[in-house]
């Protein structure tokens, strides 16, 4: 309340009002309005690119079992598969939730593994 009462004072209005307005505009109005639109647009185009990479990776060996992993609510995750040469992984800038949804669209059934302590999901193709 002190910030509001100071910003309403005549002598301190210019100094204190500019700071609270910057804070309010920066934290409340402007970023809320401006930030989601650019991030949304950037995320959608970036998401499409990343989903294309995921689809291409899975199409290379669609019958294989895939393992998706990523932190919750973070736009960074990985998808891996085991091959004769070893484990092959792809790091993508999408959330594991988005990756999970895309795997389902490609007819994969994904579930947590039976091993305690593992956070990745195992995805198998369902014909």
UniProtKB/TrEMBL annotation:
Residues 10-22 have a biased composition (Polar residues). Residues 24-38 have a biased composition (Low complexity). Residues 1-52 are annotated as: Disordered. This is YALI0A06809p. The lineage of its organism: Eukaryota, Fungi, Dikarya, Ascomycota, Saccharomycotina.
